Amino acid sequence: MDAPIPEPSLYTVKAIMIMDNDGKRILTKYYDNTFPTVKEEKAFEQNLFNKTHRANAEIIMLEGLTCVYRSNVDLYFYVVGSQQGNELVLVSVLNCLYDSISQMLRKNVERRTLLDNLDAVFLAVDEICDGGIILEGDSNAVASRVAVRMDDVPLGEQTVSQHLQQKLQVLQSAKEQLKWSLLK
Fold it and tell me: Which pTM does this prediction carry?
């Protein structure tokens, strides 16, 4: 007798991860309790990294989960779904994640730059997926929303480079105003 087909669900994504080339987590977001403890999460991540860091494939079935992944320079991007999940949907989430981060980092997708902009990367992940439900699949929309939000960050939460950039803009504006007032 055939097994019953599971009901379709909006909860498609079980986890989104970004790891460095040593298999250390940079960003991880789990959307269910498949791995109830951090120890189990890290064990799964290490196992996943060990199976994928030398492979050229884009998909792997591991511990009853479908994992799609992509590597770039010194980073590994993963999107994890259920065994019954649609791989094409997971790949579209992965592509949206990678492409939006690539746009935000101006095509400089590597560990150092990603760590310098980790707050924006977290915002991008939150724009793409919430609670395992895919919210956005268009990388341009994600990148533009994150850029708008980053402009609205309160002064106390800005990075030093953002703060200096704003100071330089104010100084440049003051310099222009002074120049025009002296020329009158």
Answer: 0.76
